[in-house]
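**Backbone geometry record:**
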Amino acid sequence: MTQVEDTSRSMRLDRESFAQGYFENAVYRHWGPYEDVPEADLEADLEKFVEDEPTEAEFDEFRTTIALFGAGEEAVTEDLMPLGLALDDIDKQMFVSSQIYEEAKHTQFFDRYWRNVIDPVAEELGYEVTSPTDQRYFGEAYVKLFDKNEAAMNRLLEADTPENRAKAYCHYHLVIESVLAQTAYFGLQSSFSDSGSDEVALREFPNLNGLVGGITKIRSDEGRHVGFGMNEVRRLIHDEGVDPEIVQDTLQSLMPHVAGIVQSAANVATDPVPLVEYSRDKLTRRVEILTESDAAVPPVDELVKIEGADDAGAASDD
């Protein structure tokens, strides 16, 4: 085999590139799903939930949301691999490798929460103990959205074109991470903390510091992931000539799945209406940033902050 010499760069990394900046931000803000979410906080969540005595329907709605998150994080951990293979820029490859690692950490957090809080609460309240992989939790809209995401990513291995890359980023970074996940995190934050919106929860629930502390750190990671995808789609539109309508049509085609997931996972203890409105507003703001020539993706330090959260590493809703 003939080895091809790489003469395109003098240094291995481009420290000025946005992707390298995102990677460095990920390293700086590293957290662990065990050591940085104290066991005492999970024990307190368990005690508060048992004392609150939710109805079985209310509790099942809550654990459905946790099951959807756990499965979603596991799926995107797997589905991002083709993008890593398709990329030929070391700085972007490094960032995507950090993102895969972070998605795996998120999977670990939700697995831990199910074992340490969900199952023990069910046992204490005399409700059925279920598995987070039970198919009852995954409706048609959810399955279709993630199947389409997997297909969009795998397409890069067959035809790595600018249009297919844009579609892949739209599925993964802009709909699943930016719209669906951020909407669901917003719903949990609103229901189980003093921040968020008072319109989401249909009754007052206890503050679950273990859950909210964990998702605050996860949302920080997701803000960085979304920013990476937005930067890439903007570049594909404005530098590589991808038709903005391809991006808008892809995003719009996936929104019915998002609405279907939100509506099927809510209604008992959570009002789906403000969440669907929140998701639509998210999409509108994303499209504006992507397509308007004078718009800009917020700096990464803004993307990893959550408005109204106490944690300094929380993610922005920009």
